[in-house]
Design brief:
Layout lengths: L6 H15 L12 H10 L5 H14 L3 H7 L1 H8 L5 H18 L8 H5 L6 H12 L8 H9 L8 H11 L5 H15 L13 H4 L7
Helix pairs in contact: 1-11, 2-8, 4-6, 5-6, 9-10
Length: 215
C-alpha cells in the first residue's frame, strides 16, 4: 500500500486515524496560564509529564508568577524541582527567565518564538509548545518521540528534529499543527512506544509503517 500512496496521501490518512482516536487533545502538563505552562514545559526536558505534574503543584503553590519565583531564589527552586532531574540547571533557568520577564516584558510571557527562544533554558521545542498551547499560534513542536514516529511512518527522512519539523509542516495543514502535535504524542504512548513496539498491532504502522519494521 505504501508504494501506491504519495507522502501527502499517507499523511492525510494518518491524520484521519489520529482524529478518530483522539478528537479531544487536553494539554498533558497541568498549568493555569502561559507562565506556568512555560515553567512546566521547561521542567519536562528529560522528564516525564507525569512526574512534572506531581512536582509543579508544590512549586506553583510557592510561586506561580515571575515576581514570586525570583523571591524564592535558586536554592529553594532547585530543592522543589529536584525529582525532575537536571535541577541545578533548570532552577537557574527558571530564575533567570523570571527576571527577564519582569525586566523586559512586564512580567508577561512573550508570544513569539524568537523572544521565547532568547530566554534561559528555552529551546525551539519548548518555545513551540508555549506558542501553540498557551496562545493558539500554529506551531509543530517535534520532540524525539514525534521524530521517531514520523520516521516509522515515512513522513520524514529527517536525521534530526529540525528537518522532521519542516517535513511534517509540509504535509499537514497549518490549522491542524497544534492538535496533531498532541495527537501524535498520545498515539505514541498508547500504540507506538520506543521499546516493545509491535508494528503488526499498531493501527498506523501496520498499514503505513516502513517495511523494515517487520523484519
Amino acid at each position: 500500500m505504501n508504494k501506491r500512496l504519495t507522502r501527502q496521501q499517507k499523511a492525510d490518512a494518518i491524520a484521519d486515524i489520529l482524529e478518530g482516536l483522539y478528537p479531544e487533545t487536553p494539554v498533558p502538563l497541568h498549568h493555569k496560564d502561559p507562565y506556568t505552562l512555560l515553567i512546566a514545559v521547561l521542567l519536562s526536558a528529560q522528564c516525564t509529564d507525569e512526574r512534572v505534574n506531581r512536582i509543579t503543584p508544590a512549586l506553583f503553590a510557592a510561586a506561580d508568577n515571575p515576581h514570586d519565583m525570583i523571591t524564592l531564589g535558586v536554592p529553594t527552586i532547585e530543592n522543589i524541582i529536584r525529582p525532575c532531574g537536571l535541577a541545578p540547571r533548570k532552577a537557574k533557568a527558571i530564575d533567570g527567565l523570571s527576571h527577564i520577564l519582569l525586566d523586559t516584558y512586564g512580567g508577561e510571557v512573550p508570544q513569539t518564538l524568537e523572544a521565547l527562544e532568547s530566554l534561559p533554558g528555552v529551546g525551539h521545542k519548548t518555545a513551540s509548545v508555549v506558542v501553540a498551547q498557551a496562545f493558539g499560534i500554529p506551531a509543530f513542536p517535534v520532540d524525539t518521540h514525534i521524530h521517531r514516529l514520523a520516521n516509522r511512518w515515512t513522513l520524514s527522512t529527517g536525521k534530526n528534529v529540525e528537518k522532521t519539523e519542516r517535513d511534517l509542516k509540509k504535509v499537514f495543514p497549518r490549522e491542524k499543527w497544534n492538535k496533531l502535535h498532541l495527537q501524535i504524542i498520545f498515539f505514541g504512548r498508547a500504540y507506538c512506544p520506543a521499546r516493545g513496539h509491535d508494528p503488526k498491532a499498531c493501527p498506523i504502522c501496520s498499514i503505513y509503517g516502513r517495511k523494515t519494521l517487520f523484519k
